Amino acid sequence: MADYESLRTEVVNGNAAKVRETTKALLDAGNNPLSIINEGLIAGMNIVGPRFKSGEMFVPEVLMSAQAMGAGIEIVKVVLADADMPSIGKVAIGTVKGDLHDIGKNLVAMMMESVGFKVINLGIDLPAERFVQAVKEQDVQIVAMSALLTTTMLRMKDTIDLLKEEGLRDRVKVIVGGAPISQRFSDEIGADGFAPDAASAIDLCKALLGE
Ligand code: B12
Questions:
Q1: How far apart are CA 98 and CA 186, in angstroms?
Q2: For the domain that residue 197 is a member of, what is the CATH number?
Q3: Which of 64, 105, 125, 148 to mutate to test the pocket of ligand 1 (most atoms within 8 A of CB)?
Q4: What total of structural domains would you count in the chain?
Q5: C-alpha 13 to ligand 1 mean position (Å)
Q6: Is the CB of 73 within 6 Å of ligand 1?
Q7: Higher model confidence: residue 54 or residue 8?
Q8: pTM of the model as a whole
Q9: 79-111: per-residue pLDDT in tens?
Q10: Same domain, yes or no: 15 and 31
Q11: What is the C-alpha to C-alpha distance for residues 163 and 93, in angstroms, rounded to an integer?
Q12: Which residue, of 57, 82, 107, is where some domain finishes?
């Protein structure tokens, strides 16, 4: 029988086909789409995170779990779109120059989308100019930067400096994240906030936009 627990297990196992099947069954049975996301898909990833940290799971498995979660979210999104869920804010997210790590950044992007943010995923290895261009041309309210290396995290400040130079700093909120990032670092470079994981990133964005 399709239930949230089996959905969580299928996400942990990285079984995208099963996740699709169970997600559809839960929707057909009349479950709330957001509960399917929160109690099934994201909750599954929340099991994966600590297992990865403790060395019980490895990168390829984490990727498969993230893809399985994404497969479920794609299905739920269609229903959410039907319900005409309003966008609660527009976010441009990317990994800074010199840094190719994107698993965590993509997770943050996916989860933000799943709760109703419009997300422009700019990609990896991005110079400050790309973030600033998104602010200029796409009217984003939040710039979200990811870095996984102690060397590349320093590039985050370049974007903030360039936003200031171009007179755009007051127009957007800037948030930062990634394994080496801390609240202290965020304060030091003049960002508006830091979040240690995808779920807290959503809370942070909502708080910054006054939701
Ligand atoms: C996977 C991985 C890789 C993969 C990346 C694949 C990919 N597509 O991303 C590959 C093999 C390519 C790679 C390469 C390298 N890596 Co690497 N890599 C990792 C590893 C094992 C996991 C990272 C990961 O995906 N974690 C899982 C995700 C879910 O977690 P996360 O990224 O932290 O994201 C979460 C939060 O941080 C937060 N978050 C993330 N981004 C954002 C953004 C915002 C705005 C917010 C609010 C929150 C947020 O939310 C996420 C979800 O909860 C880490 C080790 C580790 N334990 O972190 C090393 C690690 C980051 N890598 C490291 C290194 C050294 C390298 C290389 C230099 C290795 C080399 N010699 O070639 C290269 C650099 C390549 C480059 N230029 O970027 C070091 C960094 C050391 C340091 N302190 O700087 C680490 C820590 C490994 C280690 N212990 O030495 N790597």
A1: 19
A2: 3.40.50.280
A3: 148
A4: 2
A5: 21
A6: no
A7: 8
A8: 0.81
A9: 876 555 557 899 999 999 999 999 889 888 877
A10: yes
A11: 15
A12: 82
